[in-house]
Write a structure and sequence with these properties.
Length: 301
């Protein structure tokens, strides 16, 4: 028998509805539940059930046993790869640098060659320190070049040895000849007219100096040398219209003179210096080869 209770003027009836979560009575029917008084005035919500204030935590992902770190050892940390900066490629750099330098050298040499080839013989000779250019000093002197028989007189106050003037029709052989005694100026001048360089030296020049000069002459066409009495300096170099006098055979200007003027100072380009009516003997008196055969004075080579 249920009991009724007055409360606030209304009759309440015991509820026989099962309450969620109520435990069944022990020893009784499993379907029976305790009676719980429920106020009829309290509305029953038919909406979604309220969520439990304690939300269930999301399931945690577990690491597979195969990837777990062994017990007692900390898990290995992933290390980001380090980029190694490679050194400069020196091989190609050096190669291109060398090629560039070679190219600049070739270009520079070509420019130098053009400039050198653009200079006249006289301009190149004027670059030699101490050289006397008689085309500037006394142009009329350089124009004296007639072929004459017999000995000639030369004004040694102009140049000694002479570098121009009338001369014998026969020329001294100048195929790299080293004469150990004086030769006739008349024959030497004719060889110079053909383009030879004539090196003279004072007779008392030391033997080693003479040999150093001879090494520059032997075997070279359009070259000859001999001792000469009376010149101002120990060594003198002559080409037609040019002269350079120095003190020692080691003077670098000797080679410069030879390079600039051998054959280049010729007044008769292409004429031989070592064949024809040549003189190979020494002595200061000229030999007139061909005079007895009806020859005579001639002008030019």
């Amino acid at each position: 028998m249920s009991m009724s209770t007055q409360h606030g003027g209304g009759n309440r009836k015991p509820s026989t509805k099962p309450v969620a979560g109520a435990k069944p009575k022990q020893g009784g029917d499993e379907d029976a539940v305790d009676e719980v008084e429920v106020e009829e005035s309290a509305p029953v919500s038919l909406g979604k059930p309220k969520a439990s204030p304690r939300k269930s935590a999301p399931a945690r992902k577990t690491t597979p046993a195969s990837k777990r770190a062994p017990a007692g050892r900390p898990a290995a940390r992933k290390v980001a790869p380090v980029k190694v900066k490679q050194g400069a490629a020196w091989g190609p750099i050096i190669l291109f640098s060398v090629v560039g330098l070679l190219a600049l050298g070739i270009i520079g040499f070509a420019v130098w060659q053009v400039n050198e080839n653009g200079l006249t013989v006289r301009e190149r000779a004027d670059r030699i320190d101490g050289l006397k250019n008689y085309y500037k000093i006394n142009k009329a002197y350089t124009d004296e070049r007639s072929h004459m028989w017999g000995p000639q007189k030369y004004d040694l106050s102009i140049a000694n040895p002479p570098v121009a003037g009338n001369h014998n029709q026969n020329w001294q052989r100048c195929l790299g000849d080293v004469y150990t005694a004086p030769i006739a100026t008349e024959h030497a001048l004719h060889a110079m007219e053909h383009g030879s360089v004539w090196i003279t030296y004072q007779p008392n020049l030391p033997a080693d100096q003479v040999e150093a000069l001879a090494a520059k002459v032997r075997g070279k066409d359009y070259m000859m040398m001999s001792p000469y009495e009376g010149q101002a300096k120990p060594i003198s170099l002559q080409a037609w219209g040019f002269q350079l006098q120095v003190d020692k055979a080691s003077d670098g200007r000797i080679d410069e003179f030879i390079k600039a003027l051998r054959q280049n100072a010729s007044l008769e380009p292409g004429t031989p210096c070592s064949s024809g009516d040549i003189i190979t003997e020494t002595g200061t008196v000229p030999r007139d080869l061909g005079k007895d055969g009806g020859g005579g004075m001639t002008s030019g080579g």
